[in-house]
From TrEMBL:
Single GO BP term: amino acid transport
Family classification: Belongs to the sideroflexin family.
Name recorded for this polypeptide: SFXN4 protein
Record keywords, A-Z: Amino-acid transport, Membrane, Mitochondrion, Transmembrane, Transmembrane helix, Transport
Entry keyword annotation includes Transport: yes
Localization in the cell: Mitochondrion membrane
Main location: mitochondrion
Bilayer disposition of the protein: Multi-pass membrane protein
Keyword Transmembrane among UniProt keywords: yes
Record GO terms (molecular function): monoatomic ion transmembrane transporter activity
A GO CC annotation given for this chain: mitochondrial inner membrane
Amino acid sequence: VIVSSVQRHARHSFFWQFVFHTYTTAFTLVNGNGTPKTEEYSLQQKQLLLGLGAISYSACVGALPLVFMNRYALKNSLMQLVVRKLLPAPLLGLTSAFTVAMVRSPEFDNGIEVMDRNGKVIGVSKKAGEKAVMETALSRGVLFGTTFFLPEVLMYCMQRTRFVKNPRALGPVRAFVIMSVLAGMLPVSFSMFPQCGEIKRADLEPEILSSTEETEFFYNRGI
């Protein structure tokens, strides 16, 4: 996160964002729901291909503003502000959410297990899978979007007020601010939605409802 946030060249930005999204994609693969098991080998292949495509696409999107700025020699202060300060945060948030949705898309297609209050598996629901993936994608987007955006605001305020007087200290201070925001946002992101998600009876498929009279169901959201 820190290295990706300080890149000023498109090729370097692409490389470090590729590394960043590779790590987060691997984390998503390991910490998904894990219910889909049909044709397990082909499923793993599909997830790896989707993950590689999502990583490459996200790295390209992240580096695109710098490519655009360098290609058209946009050097005025407004474009510098937009490309270097304002765009990276929403782009990283969106691409982080995108990689989650792509890698865990088998949960859309095959569904995930839903349980009653006693932990008994009632069935496999695509709607619960969709809800779990979307909640995780949103929390991941908020985590990294905020981690890129808030340090820029804080550093801007520090520079305006000359809180950091030595220009050489700006780099270490920026790294410390980013680490602090990331550390603070991790529990916020994980607590946005409960790990054991809840879904109402009216939101489930009829074939699941026909086998039980329960009104509330639960599922493992993943991380």
